[in-house]
Write a structure and sequence with these properties.
By secondary structure, the chain is mainly alpha-helical. The chain has one helix at residues 2-65.
């Protein structure tokens, strides 16, 4: 009877470890997606700042002509 308990306990541990590994894999995937989104947002922010800077300079040039 003791052998059956040990076997069940080992199987239970294996299933628990499998679930933990799946969770780690999912979290790694989530991190990769979040990092990709962050990179894209940083690039968009940089482009928007550059466009704003250019527009600001054009406004200044226009005001100086008047």
């Amino acid at each position: 009877m003791r052998y059956s308990f040990c076997f069940i306990f080992t199987v239970s541990q294996d299933l628990y470890v499998d679930r933990l590994v799946e969770q780690v894999d999912k979290l790694r995937e989530d991190i990769a997606i979040t990092e990709a989104q962050l990179t894209a947002q940083l690039e968009e922010t940089k482009a928007a700042k550059e466009a704003l800077s250019e527009a600001s300079m054009e406004i200044e040039v226009g005001q100086n002509k008047n």
